[in-house]
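User: Hey, my collaborator sent me this sequence without any context and asked if I could get a structure. I don't really work with proteins. Can you help?
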Amino acid sequence: MTRFTPTELDQFASQLDRAYAALLDQVRQELAASDEQHFQDLAGRVHDQGEESVADMLADLGAAMIDRHIQEMRDIEAAKRRIKDGAYGACADCGADIGLARLKAYPTARRCIDCQGVHEKQFAQAGHPSL
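Assistant: No problem. I've predicted the 3D structure and written it out in structure-token form, which is a compact way to encode the shape of the chain:
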């Protein structure tokens, strides 16, 4: 397994902390916008079925984005635990090194590139992107 220096681990932790804070801010903004939209709907701004459809679609899109952000936040928390536990950089499936370039590009990676490819093929669902 790749052994990172304390400085490298601190850099990854800082990068993860910044990403987490940015996601948290986005979730808060989207929730505030969602609350504002619900208030506008209650105030009677949606007058016909077309406007109601658009309002529903926007609400669903906002909820999906919030869900995606929350999942990313969970991935960040898991990566921070792996740093703390000394398992950061090891593939969760085969135990091999994930690779520094992959971790720099995707610091929450749990698998090496080969295992990730197998995982995506194995768990791909019709109608859902595999990435």
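In plain terms: The chain has a mean pLDDT of 82. You can pass these tokens on to your collaborator as they are.
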